[in-house]
């Protein structure tokens, strides 16, 4: 059991920063991202003995992260509108991509499904087939949703904010 815990702890220590950044991109909120990562890592720990032997730990964690985000997104209390005093700080921790406020804001404008595909394809660097397998959708859907998402991002990023806006 100790070796299992050591192997799991080593994996988490190596991958947790990347998982967190991906979750922030998926969720648009660092606090929710933390919850999503915790849920995914909990699922991983429970299945560690099986997943570790299967040469697919990263694929399992990616899929678990996306599914945990989907579970969080579906929770009824997420639909409640918080009081203005309860709104969490949505600033993103320093990281090269996430520091770009315009890109981060544009990603939040994408529909959840397209955001997941963009994160898996362009943040994780997965192929169309790997993304399709992780999300349980067809390769054609990945291609069409990627195209639509990138077109939307180009449009959103091309618009200049008005001079009075900050």
UniProtKB/TrEMBL annotation:
GO terms for molecular function: DNA binding; sigma factor activity. It comes from Nocardioides immobilis. Residues 13-78 form the RNA polymerase sigma-70 region domain. It comes from the Bacteria. NCBIfam families: SigE-fam_strep, sigma70-ECF. Residues 102-153 form the RNA polymerase sigma factor 70 region 4 type domain. The keyword Transcription regulation applies. This is SigE family RNA polymerase sigma factor. Coiled coil: none annotated. Keywords: DNA-binding, Sigma factor, Transcription, Transcription regulation. It holds the Pfam family Sigma70_r2. The keyword Transcription applies. GO terms for biological process: DNA-templated transcription initiation. Belongs to the sigma-70 factor family. ECF subfamily.
């Amino acid at each position: 059991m100790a070796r299992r815990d050591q192997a799991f702890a080593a994996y988490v220590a190596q991958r947790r920063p990347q998982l967190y950044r991906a979750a922030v991109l998926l969720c648009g909120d660092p606090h929710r991202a933390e919850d999503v990562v915790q849920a995914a890592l909990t699922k991983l720990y429970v299945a560690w003995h099986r997943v570790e032997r299967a040469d697919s730990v990263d694929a399992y964690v990616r899929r678990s992260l996306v599914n945990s985000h989907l579970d969080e997104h579906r929770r009824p209390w997420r639909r409640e509108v918080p009081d203005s005093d309860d709104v969490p700080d949505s600033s993103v921790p320093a990281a090269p991509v996430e520091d770009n406020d315009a890109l981060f804001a544009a990603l939040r404008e994408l529909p959840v499904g397209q955001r997941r595909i963009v994160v898996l394809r362009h943040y994780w660097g997965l192929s169309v087939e790997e993304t399709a397998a992780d999300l349980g959708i067809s390769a054609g859907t990945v291609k069409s949703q990627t195209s639509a998402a990138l077109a939307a991002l180009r449009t959103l990023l091309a618009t200049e904010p008005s001079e009075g806006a900050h």
